[in-house]
Amino acid sequence: MIRLRDYEPLLNELSVPGRRGYYLPECDVPGKAEDYLPSEALRKEDAPLPELSEVDVVRHFSRLSDLNYCIETGIYPLGSCTMKYNPKINEYAASLPEFANLHPMVPVSAAQGALELMYKLQKYLAEITGMDAVTLQPAAGAHGEYTGLAIIAAYHRSRGDHDRVEVLVPDSAHGTNPASAAVAGLKVIEIPSDSRGLVDLEGLKAALGPRTAALMLTNPNTLGLFESDIVEIARLVHEAGGLLYYDGANLNGTMGVCRPGDMGFDVVHLNLHKTFSTPHGGGGPGSGPVGVKKHLEPFLPVPVVALSESGEYYLDYDRPQSIGRVRTFYGNFGVCVKAYAYIRRLGPEGLKRVCEYAVLHANYIWARLREHYRFRYDRICKHECVAMPTKEMMDNDVHTKDIAKRLMDYGYHAPTIYFPLIVPEALMIEPTETETLQELDGFCDALIAIKKEALENPQVVKDAPHNTPVRRLDDVAAAKNPILNWRKLGNL
Ligand SMILES: *Cc1c(COP(=O)(O)O)cnc(C)c1O
User: Which of 57, 221, 316, 456 has the fewest C-beta atoms under 10 angstroms from its C-beta?
Assistant: First the structure.
């Protein structure tokens, strides 16, 4: 099926002189503007705004939103980043005025319900990850990584272990891992993957030593493969005096089935905006809670949400070893409400089923595609699988980027591409738990059809997309020089 899209005019192209949507009431402040404002602050001419009716504006933005591919219109199979469908009831919960309108400066006595929710969410996340204590403060995954590493650094310093400044990061890791370590003032040492796509134990042993602060690991890793040596890895790192950091941004591959805490990890961060029911991709708000084992609890950011013996929730600032605040107020509270609602709705059995279906769906895709695409690690995976174009496709000069663009013509969002870096031409597919068999099949059928085109008529793939309002964009320029103003756009 090909979903056609139309050209949408710009707002200034729709503008008709004199057309109005709203009129302001007569000003009831006595006197003139000049009586109140200095002359340089007064407007000399009318603002050059497009002139439109309410209907024009509503239709324009509704049509624009229709042009946008989103999880509400189809599968969004971004590996690593879990673009799952999030139940709308959780948005309702977060928008309840008692939550949404609560001012962060109210006294704790007037915020007992919100604090109770945060306290319980901390407990649930600790239970899910096998940790002893959790902070909800960090605002994103990378922010959680920074917080967790700052906690690890503070721990080593508190023991007089000042030389422990090296963080070991596998070459399959998400790019934020080395970046966060660098921001936390630590030195990044890359660890190689072996032929299984897992941490190379010999490479790890060679890198471990008295300078090791931590090993950062994603498990299952970004190839969707479970680090089966994790118990041995944890032993080696701990014996060398280092700590283990778990990148739990995407918990779909383990949630409810196994826990980082039981694998030997000391610190974990979660992305509530991936696994726990906050949509993401538009730049926030997100939430990257950090869980720690008992020995790291004193270093958590202040304040910590706590429960007094008399049953009152309060904000505990009395924590002398804390790394301090990492964010204003207490984190993105609305995101916490959604995660709380999600966890309560699913319960332990439901969370486990999320994981089981996420894994089943990824393996279904792998099983359907493995005759048509290449898989560097061609075996059962967890929640995501990483495909590559075949040699014949590449011989016809059809690359991963072309496949991703052609998928749009078929009405599907592309998977994550060119990541993880250790797989050349990677198509990293994560279907998530909520897709139906029909949607999974449609997506696989599209990829198989594109393979056929690549062999028989490669130009049609190389020229894709054909059916979108704009064709191939300069994505680097789009990210670095976004044009956010309608007038500038109109002058292009
Ligand atoms: C998304 C992701 C991150 C970073 O999370 P942000 O909220 O984007 O900062 C880190 N690690 C992994 C594995 C991820 O998928």
Answer: 456
Q: How confident is the model at residue 492 (pLDDT cuts 50, 70, 90)?
A: very low
pTM, 2 dp: 0.90
Residue 268 Cβ inside 6 Å of ligand 1? The answer reads no
Distance between CA atoms of 220 and 196, rounded to whole angstroms? 13
Q: Output the DSSP codes for 114-153.
A: HHHHHHHHHHHHHHHHT-SEEE----SHHHHHHHHHHHHH
**Residue ranges matching CATH 3.90.1150.10 in the chain:** 348-479
Compute and round to an integer the Cα radius of gyration of the chain.
Answer: 26
Fold of 348-479: Aspartate Aminotransferase, domain 1 (3.90.1150)
Q: Is the CB of 81 under 6 A from ligand 1?
A: yes
| Distance from the alpha carbon of residue 147 to the mean position of ligand 1, in angstroms | 14
Mean pLDDT along residues 275-279: 94
Over the stretch 150-162, which tens digit does the pLDDT of each residue have?
A: 999 999 999 999 9
- Read off the tokens for 4: 């056609």
Q: Buried b vs exposed e over 16-49: b needs ≥16 C-beta within 10 Å?
A: eeeeeeeeeeeeeeeeeeeeeeeeeeeeeeeeee
Looking at domain 88-345, its CATH architecture is 3-Layer(aba) Sandwich (3.40)
